[in-house]
Amino acid sequence: MMRLPMxxxxxxxxxxxxLAAALCGLVLAGCAGGPAPAPAVPDSEAWQAFALPGKxxxxxxxxxxxxxxxxxxxxxxxxxxxxxxxxSSAPPAAEVSFSWWVPALPARASVADGDREDAxxxxxxxxxxxxxxxxxxxxxxxxxxQALTGERPPYATLMYVWDAEAPVGTVIINxxxxxxxxxxxxxxxxxLGRWRDHRRDLRADFRLxxxxxPGPLSxxxxxxxxxxxxGQARAWYGPVNLYPQGLLRPCTAExxx
Length: 257
Description:
mainly beta
């Protein structure tokens, strides 16, 4: 098996409040939803905007893009999520399909650099787990985030991202919390201005990123942000679908790099 590169994003100096804000930005806990497949229909009542403390909100709007139902995201120095909770009693999701359309990448942004940590598109998955196994520092961070938002961050958050610099397949460990890890599935500018369809083995990607088996899925979120670079970002997201192992069709040419 080819070993993919793994990076650790370095955060800028931050106060406890800034650290908590970074963590609560990935509060994806919860339990509401239905059995797989669970499409991300734009007008679904299960999806809701989730604001981050001290941040302007990204605008998420249900639209049709090139004949596809989509969520349009517009960020102007902002960061917030479009989130859906998942019923933990539903059959475990092993595979996922999603798509996005990006016209341009945020200037100077890099998901591997804490000072420039913005992304035109992120699809994020929160997982449950045994919090008692986490370090004392991580538990303290989670408690602080919960005090600010009323929600405890998930045991682990796996996100798929498009980055201007990091190669496809790179695993990036968040510099503020190693319970947040990113996998780059699109890189650079060559595929801008068109739909990019992705089909992933969610369980295998979790093992790759965290080195352990995933717990139950608790949430899904979309996030387009430009708050760290003080710039702008715009994107469209297609439906997110979850599948039990083996039901997702093999990826064809249109969704490969």
